[in-house]
Amino acid sequence: EPEQPALAATAKRTVPTVDPLDARTTGDKIVSAGFRWTWLVAIVLMAVLGIAGWLLWRNANIRWAKGQVAKIEELEKAGKYLQAYDLSIVVQKYLGQDETINRLMPTISDVISVTSNPAGAEVYLKHFDTDEPAKMSERVLVGTTPINNLRVARGQYILYVEKDGYAKAESTISGAILHVGNLVVLPPQITITQRL
Known about the structure:
The structure is a single chain. The longest helix has about 60 residues. Helix content is about 50%, strand content about 30%. It is an alpha+beta fold. A hairpin with a 6-residue loop joins β6 and β7. The chain contains 4 helices and 10 strands.
């Protein structure tokens, strides 16, 4: 019989005691871990949906841009260089260096360089159409001198060069294309040197 108290003592030692607070805490931990997994899954799902939405939007813009290349060619053939150039700038944002647009760019655009003495003068351009003189655009600041190789839509412009403390200068520039029979002659780059 002396062995029985030892067994009873062993049984008492091996029987775990459960504290109700520990049980609640363990249950809370399980529930909390479930909420964390739910949030993690929701965040991953939102990220996947966001990326998929961006890809769909991007592909739709690329399809639209590819469809506009033919319109740019039509505008170029009709001599509507300003519209062709403006559309080509938007299309290039989606297509990058498109072969057709690169081929058309010398026809639908001019390259302008402006220097002044003294340097640091503000340069403005105002596009006008000789067919509709009343329809002139607002003048736009394009930079300060020296300006090198600024690409603009082919056409007629009034160029303003202004610097505080100096007389303002104004001149008309044109990058009109010369047509001789079937021959098309593109003008050279427009270079302006302005003394203020």
